[in-house]
Amino acid sequence: MIIKLLRALNIVRIALRYGLDEIILSSSSGHLFLKILSGLFFWRDLRAPRGERLRRALEELGPIFVKFGQLLSTRRDLLALDIADELARLQDRVPPFSSDLAVAEITRALGRHPDELFASFTREPVASASVAQVHFAVLKNGKEVAVKVLRPHVHRAIKKDIALLRIVALFIERLWIDGPRLKPREVVAEFEKYLHDECDLMREAANASQLRRNFADSSLLLVPEMFWDYCSSSVIVMERMHGIPISQTARLIAEGVDLKKLSRDGVEIFFTQVFRDGFFHADMHPGNIMVSTDAATFGRYIALDFGIVGTLTDFDKDYLAQNFLAFFQRDYKRVAQAHIESGWAPKETRVDELEAAVRACCEPIFDRPLSQISFGQILLQLFQTSRRFNIEVQPQLVLLQKTLLNIEGLGRELDPDLDLWQTAKPFLENWMREQLGWRGLLARLKTEAPYYAQLLPQLPRLLHRTLSLSADRQQYDYKSVLDQILFEQRKTNRFIARIIYFSGGLIAGILLVQLLYQLQDVYY
What we know:
single chain; disordered C terminus
């Protein structure tokens, strides 16, 4: 309890030092309290922009808060742009933890000392981040590998800081005028989920395995192989990849890499992940991407660090396809209708009002040269427009927008004249034809055929069961009504029964008389 209190006091100290109270209490309701705090802490230097002060505070608070700032920087649909831009500059400058601790964790997780597991093991880490660090090693069979080790006690640190972040989020929601719209508690919950996912290295290994399988026959992307016999939730061992970090363009040029082709390949890789697979690497900043220099795979992208991936359902992809297609055709009414039909905009939203807002957002873009048009900025502006109409932006689409901004930034750093529209539009149009045309219909029928082949013989039984359930439900629903008319129905039934008995008796009498006459004729 004392440790938590000291940590909380340290957070308050740093927050006051960088004037975070000024950011939170900038609403009219907080002006009086803000004046009191400003008088008490007159010695503070608050001349730096608010975004910069927030970034520096998070850096001083430690790696968990730095990672929280990185997540916040992706929520451009919620934050002011000056804050989001500054938080996007956050980098994990985390010192490595002791090599002895790394060796101990490997021994505990894999059951043997690294000297027994590997032919050689480099004790000095080659990379360090807030959650894990990486060492190089060589397997007994001579295969070069990278060993990723989770930080000791990281779960405990996460638990402590998340608890404090929840308290901070509650204060922001109550004291900041924009607090309810920013949904700080939901953002903290989303952050906690991401952190726990990243701290399960088996999940990261599985993500890498899936992405590697998706691009098994690709000439564009390489994904390291996972060695499952050496993997656990806190240690994973993967193929060591040799390449040049994509941010080192001078080295790439010196090696003879075609930067223009590399930028186009990056766009194709991204859209293939999104629209073909619905499974994409969602943390594609320069530190996680290299370019292969091996002769057999020269010039291919190398993806690393698979702790965060995004997934899209068929519904999400259809939504994106409809919006992009309508955008290509400048059909803003269809964009508005797609938002309402998908359920993301309230049903009571007026189509014409949302159409006008989307037009104001997108129309000026078409007056620019194609090379200056940004997919990521389009999505960002659409998200900002959606605020006015209480549209809930889906988390998977926020990840998509963040990844698209990363891809665009990388592409234009490699090739300033990259025409993203010209590169992506043929791919998107072909995908739309396959999904929305006859080829898409036939492909879906082919995919569903085994299911229907199994289902068809069961249809009579399932139909009978459905009808029986429907009849039982109908009988239950109308029971009170039937009770009310039961007496009248019984009277009616008795009346009908008398008519039937009378008619039956009359017919029987006629038949009996006719039979007697026939017997009489025979006798005489």
